[in-house]
Structures are given as structure tokens and as C-alpha cells.
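Tutorial handout. Part one gives the primary structure; part two gives the three-dimensional structure as C-alpha cells.
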Amino acid sequence: MYELAHIAIVIDDIDKTKKFYCNVLDCKFHSEDENDRLKFLYLKSGEQIIEFLKYKQPFEKRERGPIDHIAFKVEDMEKAIEKAKEYGGVMLFDEPRKHNDTRIMFFKGPNGERIEFIEK
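Part two.
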């Protein structure tokens, strides 16, 4: 079995993304890097790395791929929603939804990416 190394998300603004993911989702800064085409931001969520890609030159958006969203476990749904809203998160439902033995809420992050909160 292969272990997941990271998830990569194309972004528009490194500073805005770092602030949102660290303040709202409690990610920890890992590192930054760049090459001639891209700037990279690496943040840790638990033991996992999220790689954010900022293109230096405009590029044609890729076709939508099979990855639909990134999900984070939360202990207090209402508190997590308020914090996300405070940093510009746009909720996609009016209220959290029930799914089996969990409550879920989808919202858009600072780059339009879909994020899900999951509360057991």
C-alpha cells in the first residue's frame, strides 16, 4: 500500500492562504519554495502535508479533476463555521447537514476550493 504524501491545491494568494489555513484550520507552517514557474507553500495538517501552488504567470485553468474537496475533522461545528466566516469562508449550506453519525458543512476557502468540516 502507498502512503499519501500530500494534496496539492492551486491558489491565487500565498499570504491569504497561509493566514486562512493556519488561523481557521489550525494548520502549521512547514516551508515555502519556488522555481521559475511556481511558488510553493507547504502546511501541515496533523501528519499530512498540503501543498499549495501559486503560478507566477497566468495559466489556463486545468479541467476539473476527480478531487472534489478537502475535509477536516472538527470538535465544535458552530465554532469552526464562525471562525471560517471570520476569515472569508463562504458556506455552501444554510445549516450543517446530517450524514450517518456525523454533521457536515461544506464551504469555499480563500481560493474557491471546496472544504468540508466533519463533526462526529
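Part three, for discussion. The chain has a mean pLDDT of 90. The chain is about 20% helix and 40% strand.
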